[in-house]
Amino acid sequence: MRDDSVEPTQAEREQAKLRPGFWVYKIVGNYGRDDAVPPEAIAGAWQVDAQGNIFGDFIPNPNYRGPREEGEEVQSPSPGAMKAAQLGPGSVVPESEAQVDESAQKKQS
Questions:
Q1: Which domain range does residue 21 map to?
Q2: How many structural domains is the chain composed of?
Q3: How far apart are CA 29 and CA 66, in angstroms?
């Protein structure tokens, strides 16, 4: 299910300009460049066109749970989430590495 109510920040738009044809992820929490980002800390993503512009609606992550509590167990991050974490908040990864759960989107539509 897409969500047109979530707008990208200026920093997320700037990240998109640096990497056309990828995805920009909204990561919630205090994660450094070298920190693993658990999948449930990724609020969702926007696609980036070939000119570096975010297009389409925000695609929420059905597994997003917000900032984790101290000592809470987390899932292992996906390769796309790890790459996004390495690039930092508002980062982008290639579409081939994006882990968008299409089956969850269809159920919510």
A1: 10-101
A2: 1
A3: 8
